[in-house]
């Protein structure tokens, strides 16, 4: 799913530029770049397959490692 720069900025700033799950500092310029320092992706706090939505309130910043290991767990069920 593509996001506008405005949406990405809102999501990125949501948790003070840190991963929602582990607190790692994220780098704005490394959005979606696996292997880059501070790389991050947009994560659905409640996954779509579990009834979540694409609305901004359900989207959080996540380091790539946390996002991919979280799978279809809800944020409150996941521990890194």
Structure described in brief:
With 80 residues, this protein is an alpha+beta fold. The protein has helices spanning 5-14, 64-70, and strands spanning 40-44, 59-63. The longest helix has 10 residues, at 5-14.
Write a structural description.
There is one protein chain. By secondary structure, the chain is α+β, with helices and mostly antiparallel strands. The chain has two helices and two strands. The protein has helices at residues 5-14, 64-70, and strands at residues 40-44, 59-63. The chain has a two-stranded antiparallel sheet with strand order 1-2. The longest helix is centred in the first third of the chain and has 10 residues, at 5-14. The model has no long low-confidence stretch (mean pLDDT 96).
Break the fold down into its secondary structure elements and pairings.
Layout: H1 5-14, E1 40-44, E2 59-63, H2 64-70
| Most strands sheet | 2 strands, antiparallel
Q: What number is the mean pLDDT? A: 96
Pairing-aware structural class of the strands and helices? alpha+beta
Radius of gyration: 11 Å
Helix/strand order, N-terminal first: HEEH
Helix content: 10-25%
Number of strand segments: 2
**Distance, first to last CA:** 24 Å
Notable characteristics:
80 residues, alpha+beta, 2 helices, 12% strand
